Amino acid sequence: GVAGPIGVTGATGVAGPIGVTGADGVQGLKGDKGDIGATGVAGPIGVTGADGVQGLKGDKGDTGATGVAGPIGVTGADGIQGLKGDKGDTGAPMTASNGLTSASGDITLGGTLTKATTVATSSTNTLAVSGLQAGTTATNKIVTASTTGVLTTVEFGEHKSYTTALMNLIASPSPGRTIYNSTEKSLYTYDGTNWVGQNSQTFNSFFNSGFELALNVKADLTNTFTLAGKQNVMVTASFVPQCQVSTLNGTTSGECLLLIDGVAQDSRRYSTINSGTELYRYSSVVTWSGSLNPGSHTIIFRVIYTGGNTATNAEDRRMDIFVK
User: Fold this and answer.
1) Is 198 exposed, middle or buried (0-12, 13-18, 19+ CB in 10 A)?
2) Model pLDDT for residues 259-311, shown as the tens digit of each residue
3) Integer distance in angstroms from the first to the last C-alpha of the chain?
4) Taking the model in full, what pTM does it have?
5) Which of 4, 49, 94, 263 is deepest in the core (most CB within 10 A)?
6) CA distance linking residue 275 with residue 280, whole number of Å
7) Do the Cβ atoms of 179 and 165 come closer than 8 Å?
8) CA angle at residue 21 from 20 to 24, to 5 degrees?
9) Which DSSP string do the residues of 9-34 spell out, in sequence order?
10) Confidence band of 137 (pLDDT split at 50, 70, 90)
């Protein structure tokens, strides 16, 4: 019959054992030269060989730096004196100024200063003038130095004794000058305009008894005094105002004032009421203080009755003037 289909290939079987190695084949051709391998590790340094033959002499080297200078030698003997030179030209004439004087080629101390001049000294380099002659307090002055060192003169004996008349004759006294006034027995200092006294004085005026005042009639208590210099003055004045007639409910009033050299400086209204059992008084004190220039002065304490049903009896009027 017809052949049937080929069957399915079966699975590969297990490999058999390796066969015996065959004999070596014929020697192949020589291959190309391989690449140079890496450098191997350097071997140890060999033993130094013997010195070679001496080389030729080299060229001359550059000059070295200069060495340190040696010590100066001993000075030689002086040479022979040279010939005398020609006479030189005549020099310019000598001059002197600002407190110096030139005469016959000689410059000496003394002359007119032509500018502000300072002579500087120190604790070591001091300035002294010897041989000064004695003077008198009547004609000599004292030399003083200001804070800038400028020398000036002041009159000898600032506290010299003067009477008031002589004090007022001092020509152009400097501000701050102080003298003793033998008339007033006190020190006086000039303030640039007037002599100012440092003494204290008191002038008192009293009128102890009663004095009846008619309407608009004045009663004056006056004190005139003289000051040798400008001084501070304080004035206090008072009186006891009473009704002239002891009338029940009697009243009297008016004005009391101070006049300094004719000018009113302080004034007060006064009043008194007599209730029969009590006597009431109001504003019977006046005061003034200020400075007065040298000369004569008149101070008046004035009481004027101006109204009420009875006249004023101005009792125990008193004025005290304190000069400082």
Assistant:
1) middle
2) 999 999 988 888 887 765 444 555 578 899 999 999 999 999 998 888 888 77
3) 183
4) 0.46
5) 94
6) 8
7) no
8) 150
9) PPPP-PPPPPPPPPPP-PPPPPPPPP
10) low
Range 102-105, long-range pairs (CB < 8 A, 24+ positions)? none
Contact in structure between 250 and 262 (CB atoms under 8 Å): no
| Contact indicator for 310, 244 with CB cutoff of 8 Å | yes
Q: Report helix, strand or coil for 164.
A: helix
Neighbours of 158 (CB within 10 A): 15
- Strand-pair partners of 313: 212, 242
Q: Is the dihedral of CA 107, 110, 113, 117 positive or negative?
A: positive
Q: Which amino acid, residue 299?
A: I
E strands present in the chain: 100-103, 106-109, 141-145, 151-155, 161-162, 178-181, 186-190, 195-197, 201-207, 212-213, 218-227, 231-243, 250-260, 263-274, 279-282, 285-292, 295-308, 312-323
Per-residue tokens: 153:
């003169």
**Which residue type sits at 211?**
F
Give the Cα separation of 76 and 103 in Å (integer). 46
Q: Which two tokens stand for residue 67?
A: 């060495």
Residues 6+ apart with CB under 8 A from 169: none
Distances (CA, A) of 73 to 70, 77, 80: 9, 12, 21
CA-to-CA distance for 196 and 179, rounded, in angstroms? Answer: 10
